[in-house]
From TrEMBL:
The chain crosses the membrane at residues 15-33, 40-59, 75-95, 107-134, 146-166, 178-201, 268-286, 302-321, 327-347, 359-383, 389-408. Residues 26-409 form the Cation/H+ exchanger transmembrane domain. Residues 444-455 have a biased composition (Low complexity). This is Cation:proton antiporter. It is found in: Membrane. InterPro entries: Cation/H_exchanger_TM, CPA2_transporter, Na+/solute_symporter_sf. Residues 423-436 have a biased composition (Basic and acidic residues).
Length: 455
């Protein structure tokens, strides 16, 4: 329904007031989290949850409803989606698949094991919840929720992990480099699983399902083999039109928004297009003459992400969990931690890591952070999880990320090398290569921290 001029002006004022509260509170809570040796994103998430019905809504007069009236919420959701698109560009842009090279069977084994085990446990938990009547089956029957919960259990927050490694002095250690490589591969697998979930849920039959799968495949191939080479030529520093960053900024912003629109038009989510576009942008050409462009996008996402946390907080209500909800939370925490830790630690130990190194890797890969919230919001919008399970999963994401830092402190001093194979199968050359790779990973982690995307 179209708004009258007066109603629209009032809604704009409501949005401005909401932003004036959300952004400073989130940044303040983020600073408090940093003082507590936690990633800033945890404080910002906590701020969003506190502004929702879980805390602010408990006070008389419904302050949450007054701060975020129903008419203003669609506009806030729009800003939140834009923040997500910008954030996912940063995730894709800083995802360096070069970390996967030279790691051999250890990275592959740890990555697949720490995805397969939590995925299997998550799908089994979804079936159990539905059988016990604790959750709705959602669209596409039980298949959609089962696949989604498996993917949600499998995620590792690559940006948050980069920040944690930097904070604990592990960014230049080989174990930190291996953890980043595993997290990168795991996130690729988890987002691929989520794409399958979206296609399965949104498709109304075998032909629409095949059509969406074909379009998705063509999109990824086109981005990799058409868009990336075109961007590489267009953004080459020697081109006469690249004397300043104006063209590069327009190309990157335009391509990012068009890619997000394309995946949304296919029936996928906007975050997929933003992530893929960020991954195919040629960093060498862009950083040669326009290094400020990615930083501007990431700084814009920092401003808008608190809105996403606030919108997320409006859907989280810890008061409504009840006894069954607490049982669900304990079950989800057990499955999430056991699946990630056991999957990663056992695989690392079997491929030559020491017990301490294996435990450290299991602890690191259990961090979920903001990436998990992005995935959960997609699932809530799809209808594959209900509000109560959404609340439970948000709590799990916060707790698993919060526990990573203290556990790492108990495991310190951190190991300074990670044996890739039994008996050091790569010898001195492997150690030298690992040290060089670790230094590159440290630089990448540091640049991500400086840009503010290590969230």
């Amino acid at each position: 329904m179209a708004m009258s001029g007066g109603a629209l002006e009032e809604t704009i004022r409501d949005v401005l007031i909401g932003l004036a509260v959300v952004v400073p509170v989130a940044l303040f809570c983020g600073r408090i989290a940093q003082r507590l040796r936690q990633p800033a994103v945890l404080g910002e998430i906590a701020a969003g949850l506190m502004l929702g019905p879980s805390l602010l809504g408990m006070f008389p007069g419904d302050p949450t409803g007054a701060l975020f009236p129903a008419e203003a919420r669609p506009f806030l959701q729009l800003l939140a989606q834009l923040g997500l698109v910008l954030f996912m560009f940063g995730v894709g842009y800083h995802l360096d698949v070069a970390h996967l090279r030279g790691r051999g069977r250890q990275v592959m084994s740890v990555s697949f094991s720490s995805v397969a085990l939590p995925f299997a446990l998550g799908t089994g938990l979804a079936v159990g919840f539905a059988t016990w009547g604790l959750t709705e089956r959602g669209r596409a029957g039980l298949l959609g929720p089962a696949l989604f919960l498996g993917a949600a259990m499998s995620i590792t927050a690559f940006p948050v992990l980069a920040r944690i490694l930097t904070d604990h002095g592990l960014a230049r250690e080989r174990i930190g480099n291996v953890a980043l490589a595993c997290a990168a591969l795991q996130d690729l697998l988890a987002w691929g699983i989520l794409a399958v979930v979206v296609v399965v849920v949104n498709a109304d039959g075998p032909w629409p399902l095949a059509r969406m799968a074909l379009l998705s495949t063509l999109f990824v191939l086109g981005m990799r083999y058409v868009v990336r080479p075109a961007l590489r030529r267009l953004l080459a520093p020697e081109r006469p039109w690249n004397r300043d960053s104006a063209l590069a900024q327009g190309v990157v912003f335009g391509g990012l928004l068009l890619s997000a629109w394309a995946t949304d038009a296919m029936g996928l989510h906007t975050v997929f297009g933003a992530f893929v576009f960020g991954a195919v942008v040629p960093r060498r050409q862009l950083e040669a003459h326009a290094p400020d462009v990615p930083a501007r996008i990431e700084q814009s996402s920092l401003l808008l992400l608190p809105v996403f946390f606030a919108v997320t907080g409006l859907s989280v209500d810890f008061q409504g969990l009840g006894a069954q909800g607490l049982v669900m939370l304990l079950a989800v925490l057990l499955v999430a931690c056991a699946g990630k830790f056991v999957g990663a630690a056992v695989a690392a130990r079997l491929t030559g890591a020491t017990p301490r190194q294996s435990i450290t890797l299991g602890v690191l890969l259990n961090a979920r952070g903001l990436t998990e919230l992005v995935l959960l919001n997609v699932g809530l919008a799809l209808g594959v999880i209900d509000g109560r399970l959404f609340t439970v999963m948000v709590a799990m994401a916060v707790i698993t990320t919060m526990m990573t830092g203290p556990l790492l402190q108990r495991l310190s001093p951190a190991p300074r090398s990670l044996t890739v194979g039994r008996g050091g199968e790569h010898g001195d050359a492997g150690d030298a290569k690992g040290a060089g790779d670790a230094e590159g990973a440290g630089d990448a982690g540091a640049s991500a921290e400086d840009a503010g995307v290590a969230r």
